[in-house]
Amino acid sequence: MRDEVYPILEVLRRERKVIGQNLDARIEVKPKGDYGRILEKYKPYLVEIFGVSQFLITDNPKGEESLDGEYGLWKVSHALGKKCPRCWMWFEEEFEEVCPKCSKALGGIHLI
Length: 112
Hints:
- The protein is α+β, with helices and mostly antiparallel strands.
- The strands form two sheets. A four-stranded mixed beta sheet has the order 2-1-4-3. A two-stranded antiparallel sheet has the order 5-6.
- It is built from four helices and six strands; from the N terminus they run H-E-H-H-E-E-E-E-E-H.
C-alpha cells in the first residue's frame, strides 16, 4: 500500500512544493474491498507505517493530489494544524511548546 501512495507524496514534494518531507503530509483513503479491514487493524500505527503526520480512513477522502489505485482511493495534502518542533509531526490539537507525545517523553527532563 505504501508503494501505491508514495508517488503522490513525491508529486507534492518535488513538483508542487506543497510538502517538504513526508511528515508534512496527510493521507486520506477510501479503501477497496478487504483492505479497509486490514487498515483498521493497524490504525494506531498507520502514521508510523506510512511515515506521515496524519492518516485518515474515510468514505469521502479529500486532498490536493489523488490516485485511484488497487488498494483504494488515495488523497494526499499538507497536514493540518501545528508542527511540533521536537518530532516534526503535525497535530490538529493545540499544544504549548511540544506535542503531547513529546511532552510525555520529556516528562522527567527539565529544559533550560
